[in-house]
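Example S7 (structure tokens).
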């Protein structure tokens, strides 16, 4: 037989298990009108109305009719060695900025690795066409200036949906501008910059094809992409070691449980009162 303390804990735990899912359940099907009527208040996204309009244009027009079809053709018809070579060149151009940004965060070992990769791949790798450094065990440690700002406590700032570029925020967008001022990115011609952007966009879109169903099945694709952006941004700033925040509800439950641990229940007195009550009923 369960003691009174254990009984209370069991009842409380069962109540939580029933109430929490019920409160968090979202109706499986919503009409288009219901979805349009939903309003969100997100302090990170003060320009949500504008951002949603741009997202609809990016996703339903640019991606559907331009980016995705082009990425499919690029994936299926561009020879793999050529694709890999172009991506290597583009990634090699980012090594000097990684060197500076690692240095600014005090990651001197990673900064040395970035400098070494750029030197090796730019010479032995024929201007980055071949990634010679990685097989040598010198793996990349890419860092952007947005991560530098984040590491010093600068917040993301307002969320932004940029036409033809997708989700970003003020911090990351500012970081991209600063990264573009580093050598050799600052010396690229207009066509060189367009080529770099195109290769990155196509390869990035190809990688996302395996995740398309998640986006299609999401309750709100705009919210899904926004949350994914902020999670990725935080993941990059903390190098994958994102600090875990304790749920306030679980702290309250622990306090609730401790109160019962501090109390003593006299089971004999409970049994005596039960026996007295039964005697009264028989009389």
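Recovered sequence:
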């Amino acid at each position: 037989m369960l003691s009174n303390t254990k009984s209370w804990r069991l009842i409380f735990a069962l109540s939580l298990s029933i109430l929490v899912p019920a409160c968090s359940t979202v109706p499986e099907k919503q009409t288009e009108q219901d979805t349009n009527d939903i309003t969100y208040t997100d302090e990170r996204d003060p320009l949500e109305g504008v951002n949603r309009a741009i997202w609809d244009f990016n996703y339903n027009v640019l991606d559907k009719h331009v980016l995705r079809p082009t990425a499919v053709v690029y994936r299926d018809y561009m020879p793999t060695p050529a694709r890999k070579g172009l991506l290597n060149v583009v990634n090699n151009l980012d090594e000097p900025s990684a060197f500076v940004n690692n240095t600014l965060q005090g990651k001197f070992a990673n900064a040395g690795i970035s400098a070494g990769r750029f030197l090796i791949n730019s010479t032995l790798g024929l201007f980055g066409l071949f990634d010679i450094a990685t097989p040598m065990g010198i793996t990349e440690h890419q860092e952007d200036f947005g991560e530098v700002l984040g590491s010093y406590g600068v917040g993301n700032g307002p969320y932004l949906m940029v036409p033809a570029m997708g989700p970003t925020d003020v911090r990351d967008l500012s970081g991209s501008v600063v990264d573009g001022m580093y050598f050799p990115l600052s010396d690229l011609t207009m066509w060189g910059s367009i080529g770099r952007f195109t290769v990155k966009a196509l390869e990035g879109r190809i990688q996302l094809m395996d995740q398309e169903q998640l986006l299609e099945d999401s309750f709100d694709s705009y919210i899904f992409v926004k949350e994914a952006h902020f999670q990725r941004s935080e993941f990059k700033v903390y190098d994958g070691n994102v600090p875990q925040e304790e749920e306030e509800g679980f702290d309250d439950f622990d306090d609730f449980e401790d109160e019962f641990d501090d109390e003593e229940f006299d089971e004999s007195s409970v049994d005596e009162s039960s026996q007295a009550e039964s005697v009264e009923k028989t009389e």
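Notes on this example. Residues 60-237 form one domain.
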